[in-house]
C-alpha cells in the first residue's frame, strides 16, 4: 500500500489544539472536549501520547513469536485509539457519520485511517514529530468535512515534558484532570499541576463534558497579567457560546483607600467595573457580568463563584515560579473544567 499523505504539520494555515491521550476515561473526555472546541474555534487537533517506558527499561521490543506484543506496539495502539476517537467525535460533531467520510487513498470506507506501525519511520508512520526528539513519531489524516484535521504524535519521555514539546505551536493544550500517564500510578496527578506552571500555551484541565448554558467564570485582579487572563476568558466564552462572569476577590478592607491615600491600588468594585467595561468593548455580543467577593482566600472564593460554571479561568502571576497556591488549590478542588492562562 502506498504511504498515506502526511501533513507536516497537519495544521498548516490553522491553529492547533493539542490534547494528551493515555487511554484512560478522563483522557477520552479530554479528547471529546478538545474536538468540540477545535471544531467550534476553527482549529485543528493534535492527539499526543507520551511513551514513558524507555525512561524505565530497554526491553521495548515484541516477545518472540507473540504477535502484537511489545511496549512500542502498545504505545502505537493507544495513539491509534485516541486518533480514531478524535476523528469519530469530529464526524459526529459535524453531523457526518465516520463511515461516510471519504478515506485516504488505499483505505476502504470505515477503516480507521493511517495507523502507526512498530517500525519507527515505517511506510505508514513516515514522519517524526518536530521538537519531540528522536523517539517521536507523527501520523496525520484528513479532517471531517467542516471539522478539524486530526494528527497523532508519540513522544518519548514522561508525560509533562512530552506534552510541553508537542504544544509549543498550539493555541491550547487540553488534558484530563487525572490520568495522563496512567502507568505511573500516584505520580499521574502531578502532571496537570506541572503543566499549569510550565505549558507554553493556555492549559485546559477537563473534569467533565461541556455544559451548554452554564457560564465561564474568570478571576481578575490588579496584576499586570490579569488583562491577558481576561482576554483568554472572553475567547473561551465566545467559542463555547456561554455567558461570562468576571469575579474579583477583594482582600482589602473598606478603609484601605483611606489608609493608603493616593497610593491605594485599584481594587474592589472600581477594578471590577473597569474590567467588565473592557470585556464588553472587546466582545459586544457576549453576555458579560461582574461579581465582587470579599475574602483573603482567593481560591475558596473563586471556587464558590464557579460552583455552577462550565469553566473557570485563572492566571498565574509568575509562570517561571510555578503555578502558585491559588492555581494549585483550584486544580485540586474545582468541580468544573479549568483554563490556566499564560
Any overview of this molecule?
- This protein is of the alpha/beta class.
- The chain has two domains: 16-206, Rossmann fold (3-Layer(aba) Sandwich); 216-341, Rossmann fold.
- It is built from nine helices and eleven strands.
- The protein has helices at residues 25-41, 71-93, 159-166, 189-198, 226-240, 256-260, 268-282, 298-305, 325-333, and strands at residues 16-20, 44-51, 137-141, 150-156, 172-176, 203-206, 216-220, 244-250, 288-294, 311-315, 337-341.
- Strands 3-4-2-1-5-6-11-10-7-8-9 form an eleven-stranded mixed sheet, with helices on both faces.
- A hairpin with an 8-residue loop joins strand 3 (137-141) and strand 4.
- It is globular and about 70 Å long.
- Residues 1-13, 97-131 and 179-188 have low confidence and may be disordered.
Short description:
The protein contains nine helices and eleven strands.
Order of helices and strands: EHEHEEHEHEEHEHHEHEHE
CATH architecture term of the largest domain: 3-Layer(aba) Sandwich
Average of the residue pLDDT scores: 78
Shape label: globular
What is the SS-derived class?
alpha/beta
Low-confidence stretches: 1-13, 97-131, 179-188
The CATH topology label of the largest domain is Rossmann fold
Going by CATH, the homologous superfamily of the largest domain would be HUPs
Reported for the largest beta sheet, the result is: 11 strands, mixed
Please report the number of helical segments. 9
Distance between the termini: 44 Å
Question: Could you outline the blueprint of secondary structure elements for this entry?
Answer:
Elements: E1 16-20, H1 25-41, E2 44-51, H2 71-93, E3 137-141, E4 150-156, H3 159-166, E5 172-176, H4 189-198, E6 203-206, E7 216-220, H5 226-240, E8 244-250, H6 256-260, H7 268-282, E9 288-294, H8 298-305, E10 311-315, H9 325-333, E11 337-341
Parallel strand pairs: 1-2, 1-5, 2-4, 5-6, 7-8, 7-10, 8-9, 10-11
Antiparallel strand pairs: 3-4, 6-11
